[in-house]
Specification:
With about 160 residues, the protein is α+β, with helices and mostly antiparallel strands. The protein is built from five helices and six strands. The strands form three sheets. Strands 1-2 form a two-stranded antiparallel ribbon. It has a two-stranded parallel ribbon with strand order 3-6. Strands 4-5 form a two-stranded antiparallel sheet. A hairpin with a 2-residue loop joins strand 1 and strand 2.
């Protein structure tokens, strides 16, 4: 999470650092609802079916209420077109919680409120410049605190979702 651009006063240079090639991969899984971020999890691996099912069972399901539509999180959690999201067990788990599962059309970020959320989180993480997994975890808490309910409602509205009654 290194900033890609920088500015300085005319005639001076900007100095910064980029992590060495010995970095660790950290994946953030999460959901956003009308009240803000919910059901967040990090793992030092990429997302596979087993990781995603564990996220749903152990992190997302406890946050859901019967009747919610899973397309993002909160009132409307969201799943994109990652192959791990499409295994039949995902639907079984979501529907066993009394919720409805709705997939978006093939990669359609304009309908996904979590995309602007990830953008805001990444911008904050780049600004904080964490260089270790431990520092990233601490920075992530800071970045998550910048996402407000007002942000979330705005993202849902921008993506065309009507407000629930």
């Amino acid at each position: 999470m290194t900033r890609r651009r920088a500015r300085s006063k005319k005639g001076s240079r900007v100095f910064g650092s980029v992590p060495s090639s010995n970095y660790k991969q950290v994946t953030l899984l999460g959901a956003v609802g009308l009240t803000g971020l919910m059901a967040m999890m990090t793992i030092e691996a990429s997302t596979c079916t087993d990781v995603f099912l564990a996220f749903i069972k152990q992190v997302l399901l406890p946050e859901l209420s019967p009747g919610q539509v899973v397309v993002g999180a909160g009132r409307r959690p969201r799943l994109d077109n990652l192959q791990a999201h499409k295994v039949p067990r995902v639907r079984v788990l979501i529907e066993s919680a009394g919720c409805q599962l709705m997939y978006l059309p093939r990669y359609s970020p304009e309908f996904s409120p979590i995309e602007p959320c990830w953008s805001k989180l990444k911008a904050r993480l780049r600004a904080l410049g964490a260089r270790t997994v431990e520092a990233l975890d601490a920075s992530l808490l800071d970045a998550m605190s910048t996402v407000t309910a007002q942000d979330a409602r705005g993202w849902f509205g921008h993506c065309g979702y009507s407000k629930p009654l």
